[in-house]
Amino acid sequence: MDKAEFVKLVGAHVHHVTLGENLAGIRQVGLRRPNQLFEASKTRPVGPRPDPILLTCGNHTARLNHQRPLIAGRRSASSFLDDHTLESWAEQLDRRIFFWPGRVRKSFANSLTDRGQNTVISLSSSDFFDRFKHSIDLAPINTGSATRRPSPRGDWIYVPVTQSVEDFRTNRIKRGLPKTRDKVVEVSLRADVPSETLNRLKAVDI
């Protein structure tokens, strides 16, 4: 897909939600994937996480959110995960930074409020595409949630934006899952966003 098609799918901005206490570190080093934060803190990766975890990475800290929505599917993991365990799925989630398309997903933003004020970092979708085209994946579900009746997923659920819009829209149809064409629910990035890049892409001050 090209940039115009990407923007049409996700809206003018993509949004990352984080705890307000993480802003100091984000201003210093940008947005980093959880696996990179574990490495920087010299901490053994933990997942799926039943509780938030505070990491010290040099002269700043980062608090990673819990993964309880994924843990909720532990008893049925084999029925909705293809070629993954709950642990390996949590591990691949930690290799990504997640964004919400269009209007911020209030349900996710509100899920952080019990741990203090949260902040939404909004980025220009077109600039985001220009900078990270080869590292962006689209998904039609919240891939980190397995509450209620979890949708089937595997590595195939992520469609790179280097593929066509039609590839994304029909990805699950071709697997005999839903009969309707998919819409983008989640945008994920298989790369970090350095602070200088973040400053160029952000739509509002953080």
Report on the architecture of this protein.
Helices cover 31% and strands 19% of the residues. The protein contains ten helices and eight strands. The strands form two sheets. The protein has a six-stranded antiparallel sheet with strand order 5-1-4-8-6-7. Strands 2-3 form a two-stranded antiparallel sheet. Strand 2 (53-57) and strand 3 form a beta hairpin.
Attribute tags:
six-stranded antiparallel sheet; 31% helix; 206 residues; globular; two-stranded antiparallel sheet; alpha+beta; 8 strands; single chain
Rg over alpha carbons: 17 Å
Largest sheet at a glance? 6 strands, antiparallel
Shape field: globular
Number of strands: 8
Separate helix tally: 10
The chain-level structural class is: alpha+beta
Strand content: 15-25%
Q: What is the CA-CA span between the terminal residues?
A: 30 Å
**Secondary-structure element string:** HEHHEEHHHEHEHEEHEH
- Main sheet strand line-up: 5-1-4-8-6-7
Helix content: 25-40%
What integer is the average pLDDT? 92
Pick out the low-confidence regions: none
How is the secondary structure organized here?
Elements: H1 3-10, E1 13-19, H2 23-29, H3 34-40, E2 53-57, E3 60-64, H4 68-71, H5 77-80, H6 86-93, E4 97-101, H7 106-110, E5 118-124, H8 125-132, E6 136-139, E7 159-160, H9 165-169, E8 186-189, H10 195-201
Antiparallel strand pairs: 1-4, 1-5, 2-3, 4-8, 6-7, 6-8
Helix pairs in contact: 1-8
